[in-house]
Amino acid sequence: MRSLIFALILAGCGQLPPSYKGEGPLKFQDLPYSATSGDPWPVKRVALANVNATYDLPAEVSIAYVELNPEPAAGRKTLVFIHGLGSYLKFWRPQLDEFARKGDRVIAIDLMGFGKSDKPATFPYTMPAQAEVVRALVQHLGIEKPTLIGHSMGGQTALAYAIRWPEEVGGLILTSPAGFEAFSAREKAWFKSAVTSAGIRATDEHGIWGTIRRANFSRWRPELEWLIEERVRLASNDDFPAYAYANVKAIHGLLDTDFTRQNLWRIKAPTLIIHGDQDRLIPNPFMHGGDTRDVMELGRIGIQGAQLVTLKGCGHTVQLDCPVEYNQAVQRFIGG
Question: How far apart are CA 158 and CA 179, in angstroms?
Fold first, then answer.
């Protein structure tokens, strides 16, 4: 009965949400990376020698990425999209083809431990370490002065990149970014104990509906149900424990915001901070709560010349929740 009531609440219209438990397991490597039109994206892989050497990883460890429009039109930007916690590059689905069509060179990465990228247990999964991964890919592709576009954890990763190598970043678009929020030692210790790999692996289908739909979205639409299906089916994959472990280690890294908060002044790139006013994840609702805009204001004040845009009626995964408004705000910022 409890599950039935929960499902009815989620459906919002008296209909049960679809179930994907019977669809069979899905491997990360078989995730369908494709545009909203259904056309597949060309997925590439590269072993980043410097990263592997720095973290003593096997030489064959590699990351996956998608590149669209390798030759940008005159005056257009090179955009590097960095996904958030628990997700992968497909979470930029409404953006990649849209900006490629406008003439931008578009790169989207699966961070180490996520999506189709390898998931080595010995990688630290901190945001500065992930920033090294992104930078190594940028250098591999011969890109100068990219515009980094990061969501949530990807935003904190982009912050770490722009702080450590400020002269190398041409622009910074922080989408519902982590990295501005302060956590006490007590809060950090509690959250690290509360979130475990076993807990992530044990989350049932109704829990997945709740954590994805309720926590991340304000304007849920049936066309987004691939998010649920893929997460449910991935849980039966042999690689899922490694992914769950990467998530736990990444959460530990997300709590360490002292580096970003204390060094925002080092950022030199033009910066846009964009978020939804219905964000239910920032600030952290389990530890101290508060108002999302207040957190984002800390970033606007700390980064010289930063712009702040609040999208009304939009949730945490704002690029999927409100793609039209989000894309318009990004386009205004990058120009062209």
Answer: 10
CATH number at residue 13: 3.40.50.1820
Predicted model pTM: 0.94
pLDDT tens digits, one per residue of 81-105: 999 999 999 999 999 999 999 999 9
- Give the domain range for residue 133: 2-334
Q: Please count the structural domains in the chain.
A: 1
Map tokens 């424990």 to a residue. 241
Dihedral angle sign, alpha carbons of residues 161, 92, 241, 202: positive
Contact between 146 and 79 (Cβ < 8 Å)? yes
Instruction: For residue range 60-86, list pLDDT tens digits in order.
Output: 999 999 999 998 888 899 999 999 999
